[in-house]
Amino acid sequence: QVQLVESGGGSVQPGGSLRLSCAASGSIGSIYTMAWYRQAPGKQRELVALITSSGSTNYADSVKGRFTISRDNAKNTVSLQMNSLKPDDTAVYYCYLRREVPGATYWGQGTQVTVAS
Q1: C-alpha dihedral sign at 107, 99, 46, 93
Q2: What residues are paired with 98 via a beta bridge?
Q3: Which tens digit of pLDDT belongs to each residue from 73-116?
Q4: Which residues pair with 18 in a beta bridge?
Q5: Following DSSP, what letter does each residue of 79-113 receive, concatenated?
Q6: What is the predicted pLDDT for the residue at 98?
Q7: 29: left (phi > 0), else alpha (psi -120 to 50), else beta?
Q8: Is the pLDDT at 30 greater than 90, yes or no?
Q9: Rounded distance between C-alpha atoms, residue 56 and residue 51, angstroms
Q10: Count of CB atoms situated within 10 Å of the CB of 17
Q11: What distance in Å separates the CA atoms of residue 56 and residue 54, rounded to the nearest whole number?
Q12: Cα separation of 2 and 87, whole Å?
């Protein structure tokens, strides 16, 4: 079994910054992709940023240039540095892990990010 534990959510004013972290434990294997998704009220869950085992990254157009995803393979953690936050970034953010062998996907419990004046 794999567990994902998120931390770092909260409330911030527009233009502010937050850093989310996610720690993975259990049978994650050596090759896995990690990502952050978010879901705002009344909207579908969407990919925010993704990072592969080799360090390749992919970002949603709406966060490019503002958010940075990183990972520490030795600690099995992934982080999301969020700068220049906007009210539209308000959502529950979920950590995601896709294990390659054997194939499986896992989700964290979610952490709330609120951007408001």
Answers
A1: positive
A2: 33, 105
A3: 999 999 999 999 999 999 999 999 999 888 899 999 999 999 99
A4: 82
A5: EEEE-S--GGG-EEEEEEEEETTTTEEEE---EEE
A6: 95
A7: left
A8: no
A9: 5
A10: 11
A11: 6
A12: 32
Pairing mode of beta strands 91-99, 104-107: antiparallel
Q: How far is C-alpha 68 from the geometric centre of its chain's CA atoms?
A: 10
Cβ neighbours around 101 below 10 Å, total: 9
| Secondary structure, 3-state, 75-86 | CCEEEEEECCCC
| Residue type present at position 73 | N
Residue 56 burial by Cβ neighbours in a 10 Å radius (0-12, 13-18, 19+): exposed
CA dihedral 92, 78, 56, 27 (to 10 degrees): -110
